[in-house]
Every structure is written in C-alpha cells, then in structure tokens.
Design a protein that fits this description.
With 114 residues, this protein is an alpha+beta fold. It has five helices and four strands; from the N terminus they run E-H-E-E-H-E-H-H-H. It has a single domain, classed as Alpha-Beta Plaits. The strands form two sheets. The protein has a two-stranded antiparallel sheet with strand order 1-4. A hairpin with a 2-residue loop joins strand 2 and strand 3. This is Ferredoxin family protein.
C-alpha cells in the first residue's frame, strides 16, 4: 500500500497521479501529490515505477496501512528499489521499447531480432 511521498525528492511531475489506476493521489499545485485515498491503493507499484525521482514508497502489504518513518526509508535504500529490480529502465534509451514492460514478450522478441 502507498505509504509515503517524500516531498524533498518530488519534482511535482505528477507521473504517479497519472499512472495510478485507482486514483489514490490528488495533485497539489506547486507541491508533491497528496495520498488522498490510501485505502484504495491496490499495491500495483505503478506509481513507484513511473517516479523517476524515487520519491514514493509502497509497502508490499496491500491489506492495511503501515505508517513509515520517512528518514528511515530514505536511509534504507528502498526508494526506487521496485523500479530498479523490475528492469523498468532497462530499455529507457530505446524510444521504441521504453516503458513497454507490460508487453514483455514483444519487447524481448524485437530486441533479440534487432
């Protein structure tokens, strides 16, 4: 479940707001998005995947909120871990393949045949 938006890391790009399929975030003018409907989070990690600044922390427990200490999470190295471990940015330099991970079979076939 989404737990934190780290204001000091957030650029206000609202990629997380756009990516969230459950409309969990509310955009805030000149500030980081607000977690407005935390209970609606389905723990899909899309917000974390799209956050280039690693400003979000999603706890893997989808069943209940687990308040987190922002400083401890920043120090832990967990911010952006899901995006890095998933290979989300692996094809970032190739415009034809960037962020096509939901179509992995086609991506790997095209890369192999290139």
């Amino acid at each position: 479940m989404i737990e934190l938006v780290i204001a000091s890391r957030c650029t206000g790009c609202t990629a997380c707001v756009t990516a969230c399929p459950r409309d969990v975030f509310d955009p805030v003018p000149d500030g980081p998005p607000r977690i407005a409907r935390q209970a609606d989070c389905q723990t899909c990690f899309l917000c974390e995947l799209y956050c280039r600044e690693d400003a979000l922390y999603v706890h893997p427990d989808a069943g209940r909120a687990r308040p987190q200490d922002a400083a401890a999470i920043e120090a832990s190295g967990l911010l952006g871990e899901y995006r890095r471990a998933s290979g989300w940015d692996e094809w970032a330099g190739n415009e034809a393949l960037r962020n096509q991970h939901w179509r992995m079979e086609d991506v790997f076939r095209r890369a192999r045949d290139a």
